[in-house]
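User: Hey, my collaborator sent me this sequence without any context and asked if I could get a structure. I don't really work with proteins. Can you help?
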Amino acid sequence: MHQVKFAQSEKEIIACWEVVQTLRPHLNQDHYLQQVKEMQQEGYHMLYITEKDKVAAFAGYRNLYNLIFGRFIYVDDLCTLPEYRGKGHAGALLDYIKALAKETNKTGVVLDSGFQLNDAHRLYLNKGYKLSAHHFMLKF
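Assistant: No problem. I've predicted the 3D structure and written it out in structure-token form, which is a compact way to encode the shape of the chain:
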């Protein structure tokens, strides 16, 4: 089955680089480790699944609290390397996060997804997620 692990050590964070870079190609590998460590200090958690001693999939999430949802888990990142897709890794990560949310009395799990990610949307809908909003951004 899928064994979900937390990436906490530098070695584990670095091992996730390839799958992180697949999702976030704009990231610079030289700054990646420091960025994740800083994010972890602010409440970011990184989960991963390995297959054949290689990180095949990862998810990053935060525990948040706001007026619309109360206390919830927000999934910042979710990705599986292309050669490992279709094996249930992303679904297993989502199931793990859902279980964490329930165990810690959260109101639910929230995530955003790019319009073009139809395979991901199919997974989210199959897992019971509902399309509930558009995400707007103003970059500087």
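In plain terms: The first helix runs from residue 10 to 15. You can pass these tokens on to your collaborator as they are.
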